Amino acid sequence: MTLNILFFTITFKKREISLQEAANQEMVEKLYEQNKDKQISMYRYM
Questions:
Q1: Which residues contact 17 (CB under 8 A, 6 or more apart)?
Q2: What is the dihedral of CA 17, 21, 23, 29, to 10 degrees?
Q3: CA 35, CA 31: separation in Å to the nearest integer?
Q4: What's the rounded Cα separation, in Å, for the pair 24 and 18?
Q5: Three-class SS of residue 46?
Q6: What is the rounded CA–CA span in Å between residue 7 and residue 2?
Q7: How do residues 3-44 score in pLDDT, each as one tens digit?
Q8: Does the reported pTM lie above 0.70?
Q9: At a CB cut-off of 8 Å and minimum separation 6, what does 25 contact?
Q10: According to the 3-state scheme, what is the secondary structure of 1-45?
């Protein structure tokens, strides 16, 4: 009788972001929200 066992270890590590990356991400989210608002306002006029 043969018993084959395979173990996996998965480790998650939180990624540290720089201040510049955080500012860039915030700007991207702001622009995304602005564009979404423009699309919604255009849809209402049609």
A1: 25
A2: -100
A3: 6
A4: 10
A5: coil
A6: 16
A7: 777 888 888 888 888 999 999 999 999 999 999 998 888 777
A8: no
A9: 17
A10: CCCCCCCCCCCCCCCCCCHHHHHHHHHHHHHHHHHHHHHHHHHHH
